[in-house]
């Protein structure tokens, strides 16, 4: 059966195209309901995010127009799921009739190429522009059944490697650092309380996030304040949030990056707090925890093909709900929350998302982090002091 399959030139071209896009360009199949005689592939990190290989016969202009309409409708769903504003699509038609009179590329984001044989791939100016090495990668020494075995073997190997990478990212791990941070927060509350209310109040006064004291040289308050809590409810709420979010961030990013995200978010939350919250003292791990939300949001965006619905239904509503509570309730340092959230996003950009972030993206992330820190320090130490 496989040998018969590889006797049809259209099937051979399809197999070679799949081999190129999956093993060379890291595209993944898109599962679509009710779509026949075409294969959809996506790579949101590519300049051409979607590739369609269409084997169904397109015999006239009306059928081509309907194909374009259907494609745009499907793309709207993909954009919605992946939070993408623009998608560049390459449609490769393997069986298009000679009666098509319409211009194939009226939409700059929807590129269409007619391919009757492998020579058409080499001649296509569009393919040369977006995938200049495709023609060379279509050359195989194997023929017939050997070619089929070669291509399927390479694709299966690539898919296994991809599955292994995903497992390494999403595999649940024991969150030792999260347990440690919860313990530190608990100790910093319980021990002073056991020593007496005077001792507890002294520690709050001496180590809370307090703008005038920090500007006077007590810089340690920027971080010590994120380990203090006002009462048992405050402590339990933050420790529960830390347990839920921290375990995921520690699993996704590893222990070292997790610590950096936590402390950097706490720092940026403290800096924005002393800038905009006046001279009122502030305590709590909320700024750092909002940073973990920001890190989770950034991670989810990079894995939005898998986590698109989670971002919409869980992560974004969680962030908005907590910010809303902060704005409508008294005694909550919402500027610290916002500073931590932004800090969590930018430091995660700098540290990178495993298997997704490019070096260029990480360099830009570090530049943004430095600019953000300088801005916060200027506002907190210079402008707020006036």
Describe it.
With about 375 residues, the protein is mainly α. The protein has two domains: about 1-170; about 170-385, Rhomboid-like (Rhomboid-like fold). It is built from 17 helices and five strands. It has helices at about 1-5, 10-25, 60-80, 120-125, 125-130, 135, 145-170, 175-195, 195-205, 210-215, 220-225, 230-255, 255-275, 285-300, 305-330, 335-350, 360-385; strands spanning about 30, 40, 50-55, 90-95, 110-115. The protein has a five-stranded mixed beta sheet with strand order 1-2-3-4-5, covered by helices on one side. Strand 3, helix 3 (about 60-80) and strand 4 (about 90-95) form a beta-alpha-beta unit. Helix 12 crosses helix 13, helix 12 runs parallel beside helix 14 and helix 13 (about 255-275) runs antiparallel to helix 16. The longest helix has 27 residues, at about 145-170. The radius of gyration is 27 Å and the shape is elongated.
């Amino acid at each position: 059966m496989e040998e018969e399959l590889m006797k049809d030139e259209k099937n051979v071209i399809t197999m070679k195209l799949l081999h190129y896009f999956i093993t060379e360009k890291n595209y993944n199949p898109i599962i679509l309901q009710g779509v026949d005689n075409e294969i959809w592939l996506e790579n949101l990190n590519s300049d051409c995010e979607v590739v369609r290989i269409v084997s169904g016969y397109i015999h006239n202009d009306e059928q081509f127009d309907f194909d374009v309409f259907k494609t745009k409708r499907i793309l709207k769903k993909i954009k919605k799921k992946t939070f993408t504003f623009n998608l560049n699509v390459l449609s490769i038609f393997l069986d298009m009739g000679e009666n098509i009179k319409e211009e194939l590329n009226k939409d700059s984001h929807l590129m269409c190429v007619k391919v009757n044989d492998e020579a058409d791939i080499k001649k296509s100016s569009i393919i040369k522009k977006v995938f200049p090495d495709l023609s060379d990668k279509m050359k195989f020494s194997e023929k017939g059944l050997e070619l089929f075995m070669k291509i399927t073997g390479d694709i299966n190997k690539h898919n296994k490697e991809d599955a292994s990478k995903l497992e390494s990212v999403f595999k649940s791990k024991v969150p030792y650092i999260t347990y440690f941070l919860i313990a530190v927060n608990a100790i910093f509350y319980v021990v002073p309380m056991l020593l007496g209310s005077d001792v507890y109040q002294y520690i709050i006064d001496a180590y809370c996030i307090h703008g005038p004291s920090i500007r006077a040289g007590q810089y340690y308050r920027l971080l010590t304040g994120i380990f203090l809590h006002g009462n048992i409810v405050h402590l339990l709420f933050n420790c529960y949030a830390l347990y839920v979010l921290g375990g995921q961030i520690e699993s996704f990013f590893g222990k070292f990056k997790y610590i950096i995200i936590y402390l950097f978010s706490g720092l940026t939350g403290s800096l924005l707090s002393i800038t905009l919250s006046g001279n009122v003292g502030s305590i709590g791990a909320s700024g750092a925890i909002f940073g973990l939300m920001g890190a989770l949001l950034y991670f989810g965006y990079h894995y939005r093909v898998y986590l698109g619905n989670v971002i919409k239904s869980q992560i974004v509503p969680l962030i908005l709900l907590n910010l809303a509570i902060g704005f409508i309730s008294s005694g909550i340092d919402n500027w610290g929350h916002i500073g931590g959230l932004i800090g969590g996003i930018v430091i995660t950009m700098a540290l990178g998302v495993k298997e997704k972030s490019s070096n260029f993206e990480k360099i830009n992330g570090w530049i943004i982090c430095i600019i953000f820190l300088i801005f916060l320090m200027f506002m907190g130490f210079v402008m707020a002091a006036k």
